[in-house]
Amino acid sequence: MSVKLTNRQVGEVTVIDAAGRITLGEGSSTFRDSVKEMVNAGQKKILLNLGDVSYIDSSGIGELVSGFTTVSNAGGSLKLLNLTKRIQDLLQITKLYTVFEVFDDEAKALASF
Question: Which of 35, 75, 100, 112 is the most buried (most CB within 10 A)?
Fold first, then answer.
């Protein structure tokens, strides 16, 4: 199973609820294409909810970084919400924990934009 992305608008912020697996192939390209479409449409405040992501591989982590770069280069910001223990560990091992703003509380995350 690959990743399923559901977008919802909360004020000016687009929340992407991701569920499933973000892995090499379909899951990561789905995420990349989704972020590019949003930026091209002028949506530059993106909150990625990873609470229902069961698995992410190095390719998936790469896509998070790529999405972050795409949004940042367009003058926006991409923040992470509800990281699983595995994703937290991966971000700490890869030293990416310092790159992303990470939240456990959606209201606080939305207020940070």
Answer: 35
